[in-house]
């Protein structure tokens, strides 16, 4: 047995002719940075998500950064977010000179606890930055309602959640803008770095487009100081080829999660995720993450590793606990659920190329350790 947490080799093997053709066509056309393939992929993402605008960038991190920048957020401003996420979410808030304000998570979904946002708002609060962690949307209904009352910008970190819906709208389009990451291990992964902002706000889209290309709208006539953050043609062409398969791959992830749910249902010592899934709100299972109780998490992880089953801890530290934030300004409210989650979570193998028998084998090894 050997079950890596994701299996990009199997994925490539399943679509090799399409990928190879995509790469060759970019080389033949020498459309390496920006250009035709990027524009086509941006249009495909607009169709896929329903966004009016899609701006290809060099990473999900830059998508977050340029969105905050384009929204005019900066020094003195506070941005309310979750401490239970990938580092980039809060890193960009610090980069832009603003202050991250960490509040607790909802223990059922691992997402920002929307009911704790209002008490964290001050006269300096400018934005809310929810993360749709593991591929399940945060409580956007409540977040949008608070944002409207206090006139706050909402940036959705949808880097793990392409294909996820809340109230029948694609994530990223409920607030002012949303970010996608095409990091290779994401549900739609490139063969290198890539990211995108999706939005329905024309002015914001125009500003992000200008910032990504040295503040230029016309080549060699920069209008403001920007950065270089563009999507490569080769990555865009690969992503176009893969996007065609995303609905089927997402369905397979959901199926795999159902198998885990069913086969782990009676296992003592763990707590399965408790998501509310309806016909208006799905889960795209970027990760299948459970809690291991009674301090057994690291032992179970070791046991699985000994049986060549890949797992990960997303995330072993809360962001305010990282060394990076020792010397950086932040505000922290109660974060006890978030800190508890860091000690309990374990993500199991999850990708579109697992069969029921694979999940049975993995669950069997979990049973051995915990029973
Ligand atoms: C991957 C990820 C990012 C950053 O995306 P990159 O493309 O790796 O820069 C940001 N936020 C979350 C939640 C992510 O999972």
Structural summary, described in words:
- With 371 residues, this protein is an alpha/beta fold.
- The protein folds into 2 domains: 8-103 and 110-243, 3-Layer(aba) Sandwich (Aspartate Aminotransferase, domain 2), CATH 3.40.640.10; 246-370, Aspartate Aminotransferase, domain 1 (Alpha-Beta Complex), CATH 3.90.1150.
- It has helices at 8-29, 36-49, 60-70, 88-95, 140-150, 202-211, 233-243, 246-264, 297-306, 336-344, 356-370, and strands spanning 53-57, 78-81, 99-102, 125-129, 153-157, 165-166, 169-170, 177-181, 195-199, 270-271, 288-292, 331-332, 345-348.
- The strands form 3 sheets. Strands 1-9-8-5-4-2-3-12 form an 8-stranded mixed beta sheet, sandwiched between helices. A 3-stranded antiparallel beta sheet has the order 10-11-13.
- The longest helix is centred in the first third of the chain and has 22 residues, at 8-29.
- The radius of gyration is 21 Å and the shape is globular.
- The model has no long low-confidence stretch (mean pLDDT 97).
- Pyridoxal-5'-phosphate binds at residues 59-61, 85-86, 88-89, 131, 157, 159-160, 181, 183, 193, 195.
